[in-house]
């Protein structure tokens, strides 16, 4: 394992623990969405354990460090402030959805750049669960806002109208065609 991979794993662990702290605080405030927040907290805890286990297997002792107690306290404090604001604005699911998307980006980053096949497989299984939870959280977030219908994917909207595809011409793509 190289230094860059260690830094990515530490960042994944920190983002996962921060998302778990937020899920725990929001889970205590909600009644209807309890299962979604609880499942997200478990998923984030699993990701943090996966990253921590991989870091502890490193031969250098300074790479094996766990997150400090100060980081845990800071994560809880930040999660409490964010949750208080989200509950006040009645946007619990949309706020947590953004946090979960940050975790998903970190998982994608670590998985795409890792050299370890077993870590990539484990993160792939986590990605499948995370996609399901992100879809569920986003659907609940649209219910929170009172929207009548979920907006469609941008690529689907462009393909339906075909205006974006008709505007593409050879003149617009010349740097790519010059190679």
List the helices and strands and how they pair.
Blueprint: H1 3-29, H2 34-56, H3 69-88, H4 92-113, H5 117-145, H6 154-161, H7 163-166, H8 174-177
How would you explain this protein's 3D organization?
The protein is an all-alpha fold and 179 residues long. Helix content is 77%, strand content 0%. It is globular, with a radius of gyration of 20 Å.
Low-confidence stretches: 152-161
- Total number of helices: 8
Strand portion: under 5%
Give helix % range: over 70%
The biggest sheet, with number of strands, parallel, antiparallel or mixed sense and barrel status, is:
none
* Average of pLDDT: 78
Describe the global form: globular
Query: Whole-Å distance between the termini?
Result: 36 Å
E-strand count: 0
Structural class: mainly alpha
The radius of gyration is 20 Å
Along the chain, the helix and strand elements come as HHHHHHHH
Attribute tags:
179 residues; mainly alpha; 77% helix
Short description:
This protein is an all-alpha fold. The chain contains 8 helices and no strands.
């Amino acid at each position: 394992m190289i230094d860059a991979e260690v830094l990515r794993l530490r960042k994944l662990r920190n983002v996962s623990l921060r998302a778990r702290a937020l899920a725990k605080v929001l889970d205590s405030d909600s009644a209807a969405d309890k299962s979604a927040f609880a499942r997200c907290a478990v998923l984030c805890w699993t990701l943090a354990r996966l990253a921590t286990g991989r870091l502890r297997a490193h031969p250098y002792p300074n790479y094996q460090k766990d997150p400090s107690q100060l980081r845990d306290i800071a994560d809880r404090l930040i999660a409490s402030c964010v949750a208080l604001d989200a509950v006040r604005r009645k946007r619990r699911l949309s706020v947590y959805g953004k946090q979960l998307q940050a975790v998903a980006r970190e998982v994608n980053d670590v998985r795409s750049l890792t050299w370890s096949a077993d870590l990539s497989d484990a993160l792939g299984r986590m990605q499948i669960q995370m996609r399901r939870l992100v879809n569920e959280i986003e659907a609940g977030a649209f219910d929170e806002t009172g929207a009548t219908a979920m907006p469609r994917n941008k690529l689907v909207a462009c393909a339906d109208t075909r205006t974006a595809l008709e505007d593409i011409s050879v003149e617009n793509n010349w740097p790519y065609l010059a190679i």
